[in-house]
Amino acid sequence: MSSNEITEFNEENPMIPGGDLDEETKEALKEALVDMKSEVKAMVFVKKNCYYCRETIKLMDHFVEASPSINGKKLFTYEVYEKETDQEVFRKYGIERTPTVAFIEGKIRYLGIPSGEEIRGLVETIIRVSEKESGLEERTKKEIALINKPVHLENIITPSCPYCPYAALLINMFAYESYKQGLKSITSDTVEAYENPDIADKYNVMSVPAIAINGKAAFVGLPYEEDLLKRILEVIKEQE
Length: 240
Fold this sequence. Notes:
8 helices
C-alpha cells in the first residue's frame, strides 16, 4: 500500500503516530518554533477514555516545551475542553469530533491528532499566525476580502502523506486571511482519515490529500493557490 492510500481505521491503529516525539524531532520542533513572533493559543477538544485525545495532549505538551518565551511566557499555549463538561464551548465553536485542535476561534481545525508528517504543516501554520502573515499572494488576499459567504474547506489526509501538510497549510492560510480581514467566512478542516473514515467515505477518497469545498469534492493532490481560489469562487457561484 502506498503512503497516500487509506486503510480501515481501528483504535490505536499503528499507522497513526502518537503524541510522543523522539529527541531529534523535539530539537527540530524547537528550532522551527523559534520563528514565532507573538502568542498563539490552541483549543484542544477531547473526551474521556479516548486514546488519541490523550496522545494529542501529549503532542501539545511537546509544542509548549519547544515554544520560545517572551518575558518568561511561552508563545505557544493551549487549553483543553472536555466534551462531558464543556458542551457550551463545543457548541460555540461547532466542534463535533474528538480530538480536535482548533485555532483562531475555530476557523482553523485539525480533526484527529495532527501527528506524523502533519506536524510540519501545523508548525508552519502556528508560525504564520504568530507572524500575522498568511503568505498568500496579494491577488489572493484581495479576492478573499470579497468573500462574505460561508466557505468550508476540508482536507482529508493521512499521517504518512508527504504532500498533505502543504495542502493543510494552504487551506489554513485561506481561513486565516479571511479571519485576519475581519470576515471569518472561511473555515478549514484538516481531517485525519483513519480517525474519521466516514468523512473520507463521503467523498470517496482513495488517495490523499483530497480537498472538498462546501461539501463538494474539488481536488485530489495539492492544488496551486490560484486554482484553489478559482474553485472556491466557482463553488460559491454555483451554490447561490
